[in-house]
Each structure stands twice: as C-alpha cells, then as structure tokens.
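Appendix B, record 7
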Amino acid sequence: VFTHLLERLPEIGALSGIELQFSTPSGALLDVEGSFSCHSPSGRIDRIRMIFRDVTSRKVSAQRLEHAHQ
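Structure tokens (predicted):
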C-alpha cells in the first residue's frame, strides 16, 4: 500500500488523511495518519515530504467505545 501511494504521488502532487499501520522494532502495531507531498518541477521527483501523526490511542478509544455500545 505504501509503495503504491508513493508511485501515484507525482501525478497527484499531494495526499492527506491517509491512514497506515506500521510495526515498531519491538513488534507493536502503530496506527498513523499521514500526509504526503512532492516537488517535481521537471516531472521527476526531487523531494518528498511525509508527515505522520500517531493516532493509535484515538483508534483504541474508538474501538472500546464502539464495543461498549454493542
């Protein structure tokens, strides 16, 4: 999924609100929300900016709340 996003980035220019899940070196799963942008003045990418925000606690809280309402 991550590779596919990076492949499409030059044609789109920027993406935001993308949710991904990474594993830490200890094996724990980390839910992140990210935005990506690239600079490609000549059609070839010369830089990419990726900003990720940890949303794991928000996801866990939402799952607990949903489970409590069932």
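Remarks on this record: The chain has two helices and three strands. The two ends are 31 Å apart (CA to CA).
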